[in-house]
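Bug report

Summary: structure tokens for TonB-dependent receptor differ between web form and batch submission.
Environment: batch mode, default settings.
Steps: 1) Submit the sequence below via batch. 2) Compare with the web form result.

Sequence submitted:
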Amino acid sequence: MKRTLLSIAIIFGTCAYAQEKKSDTTKTKNIEGITLTKQVFKKQSDRFVYDVAASPVAKGNTTFDLLKQTPLLSSTDDKTLKIAGKNNALIYINGRKTNMDSESLVQFLKNTPAENIQKIEVITVPGSEYQVESSDGIINIILKKKMSDGLNGNMRMSNTTSKYNGSQASFSANYRKDKLGISASLSGGENIEAQTYTLRNGTAKTSNESKGDIDDPNKNIGGYLNIDYQLNDKSNLALSWNTWANKSYNSTVNLFNTIKTEDETKYTWSKNKEDSRSYNNSLNLNYELKTDSLGSKLNVNAAYLNYRRFQFTDNRTHASDVNMGLGKMTTQVFQDLPQIINNFSGMIDYIQKFKNDLTISVGGNYNKTKTDNDSKNISYFFDPAKDTESKPNHFIYDENIYGVYLTAEKKFSDKISGKIGARYEITNSLGTSDNAPTEALKRIERNYNNILPYLSFNYAINDKNNISYSFSSRMRRPSFWEINPVKNILTDDNYTQNNPFVKASPTYNQELTYMFKNSYFLILNHSYIKDAITQVPLQGYPVSPDGTVGPNPVLRYIRTNFGNKQEMSAMIGIQKSFFKQYWTTNFNIGVQHNINNGSLDMDPTTGDRFRNQEGKDIVYTNKTNSTSLLIQTNNTIRLDKKKTWFFGVNYFFVDKQQIELGLLKGLMSLDLSLKKMWNDWTFAVNVNDVLNTNIVKIEDFQENGNYNYIHQNRYNRNFTVSLTYNFGNQKVKKVRDIEGASDSIKSRTR
């Protein structure tokens, strides 16, 4: 069921940009206590840097809270982070990419105290040396490190109340002795993720409405261990281990369905239950050798990732009546949907610095991934005329990615610098099914290669004015779960369908940035996505390739390549402190313009086409443009001279905008916080979505008469109380940056 919920949640992924604006605002508040003499917010050649080590905003918060309040970052669903104008944000820690699946990563960030953070780097257009997908940006979290021998750390406990109550706890420690540095963290918690859905689709004559609740209980535990040893003055060896485990038993979906046709109205209940658990373990071994005094160095990484997910669902349909009574069971579907992912990655980079401010970087990487999906699907019909259906399918996906890159970065003067590079990638993949419904699905082989150029230019006009431009091209490969050909059942006639035929999607990104006094900025973005990977609703009476017409209309959310689209945005903002730092604000306002151009007339996994009740063919199209207003502001107000009391006010608003599924109605949220710091203790209270306005509503009307409506309440209004204690020597210095080898895997295990 969690995978079902995730699939449906991905439907709203395009909303995240709008929502991301909120986080941007929130992030600003955390930077509020830094003095003006320190550049808290600055633009470097290829990234924005936010120094938060000295900020009281970090105290008492989690890393996820801190990221949400960083300029240019946002989260509207409290699960995903986005960079303004980007599809996704990839999380790096100390230069190494995290290899946890998205659910584990969110829990990890929510359980890691923000006191551990030295600074946050936001790389909006990553260079050729980074192996990233589509228009993804990078958030690099630099952790604090001991300056002198000894031990320090922190403990944090929190409790969150929304529809249900949840609790979290974490413990982190840093130790240094001579050449050895060790950092470790252990965290966990439990909560129930609640959602209320209304799904409505049909025509003027027929309709299908499902309304009800989804409750997903979760227990999590995990942490990390980093060991860094200085072999000599020129070389270091580091080992990192990340682990996370999730248990979600008795996750439930209870939906009341009303199916109307010209002849009758039928009522049913969908009662679904899911038990799932997942485990994520990743290791990264890094060796760094400094080759000269200018900063030239060799980096070698080897990484291993093991991800296991076990999911069992029991989907039941009961007859009902207009009074919502629970009648006899009519259908029962059991699904066993395991997924095991093993990945080995290797990466070598060499950076050569010259005395004339020229830097040449060259490197290569290799990723080998195997996913094993041995799914089983058994349907029982409590109707003597229908036979039991058993549909097992063992889908194995092997993928090999080879990549090499070359970049040159040159500082021509104190004012002008630039960077140019290219990445060449070869991808070979093979998917096999032992019991596929069609011959085409039994063996799917893809081999392709891409040249991906990169260019950036930075001009410091004077001490107060800076302008930069970046261009990059990337590939967006489907996540491993997206190509696993399984159904995620919501009701008898409403489900999501993954698709092994999804192919990689090229993306071309441009960004122009202007900054004034490191406080005011203007950012212009443009992205062109070809063969966009998304989820598309097909509804009507399915007609199989042999001409058989289904007895009932259905709605299938199908993962597929859906035409081309463009995303453009313009944003102006300010990040500044006023009144001797009593008030720190981050304010952004801008517009986003979406151009959608896609159509679909066939289920690519079955070959089914769709007809309406009159027998006319149905094609789903989205060729609509939209322009939306975006506003966000994060404010931190210091309430006393001693800098021990702080009040936060954060707000975001996103106007309605056109996405793949239809018209997303406006979203907004008001968040308030109060924090008290006393010696090594920090007490904080947060109230999110005070007005209860962060609710997703999507509406779509097709020219052929079909309509589709989605209403999703994720209970974003919540109240959190937290207590944090810091112990030991808090003197810190910047840790050395280490890039991980498994750069393209984490985001694809979602």
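Above is the batch result. After comparison, the two runs are identical; trailing whitespace caused the diff. The two ends are 14 Å apart (CA to CA). Helices lie at 2-11, 16-29, 63-68, 102-110.
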